[in-house]
Specification:
Blueprint: E1 10-18, E2 23-29, E3 35-42, H1 43-48, H2 52-63, E4 73-78, E5 82-88, E6 93-94, H3 95-102, H4 107-126, E7 129-130, E8 139-141, E9 147-149, E10 155-156, H5 160-165, H6 167-170, H7 175-201, H8 211-219, H9 231-240, H10 258-262
Helix pairs in contact: 4-7, 7-9
The structure holds ligand 400.
Length: 278
Amino acid sequence: AHRQYSLDSFEIGRKLGKGKFGKVYCARDKATGYVCALKVMEKKELIHFKVEKQFRREIEIQSNLRHPNILRLYGHFHDSSRVFLILEYAGQGEMFKVLRKKGRFNDILASQYICQIASALSYLHKKHIIHRDLKPENLLIGLDGEVKLSDFGWSVHTPSSRRTTMCGTLDYLPPEMVEAKDHDYKVDLWALGVLTYEFLVGNPPFEEPAHKATYKRISKVDLKIPPFVSVEAADLIRRLLQHQPERRYPLDQIPDHPWIVKNRPLWPSSSGGQRRSS
Ligand SMILES: CC[C@@H](NC(=O)c1cc2[nH]nc(NC(=O)c3ccc(N4CCN(C)CC4)cc3)c2s1)c1ccccc1
């Protein structure tokens, strides 16, 4: 059911933003009237930065994902000099701009965002994908205020099918090697803890002017949670920011954590919630 798209299929609107490679514009599909986001990248840039292989793999991953908190990739096309990605339009824009403008989020907003991100990460992990680059810059906000994971720099875990074909060599791997694979999943749990802290405090927990100092604070888990952070939120942050990966709080238990339960609205917000029949 994949239509052939070209630049001519769209009316181009305002420029929405730009990233390391390329720019993104609001666009309307002429055939359906559907509003989307068109990301434009110069082929020569992708070649120059030697990212075209990773880029093709990211398109492959992203096109097959269906989750309310993961930005959809509807299709892609190219012309002689550029590659175009047809992306879901996130109507409230970039998370980091909202966070910088507000300074920090209250428990209700932060816990809803974290619960939605945990749901998206859990979906990815079940598909053997780890995100590796969770941060406010890679998050967008949809029209109904829901979070959308948007970054394409994902790395794919060794797919389980590949494991069986390599079974001969796998059998001799020592536990730390096999377990290390699981540790990879758990990098996203650590990042979720950092994100929870940054949403509630306004800056990441181990931030230092010098990189070396930041590394030192991370490896020591030198975590100072300000007194204005609620007891429940501090508990989840501490459970995620565990030095030992296997001790980090599992994603699937996050919806039942007291901080999430306590701050869950009685029903979804008016825009996305039940509509009266009348
Ligand atoms: C996250 C960076 C990444 N971006 C995407 O992929 C992006 C994909 C995508 N889909 N929808 C978007 N929406 C917006 O960018 C947007 C921005 C501001 C908006 N508002 C401003 C405030 N106002 C009150 C409400 C409306 C609304 C939508 C973006 S960005 C990127 C990476 C590489 C190259 C270009 C872009």
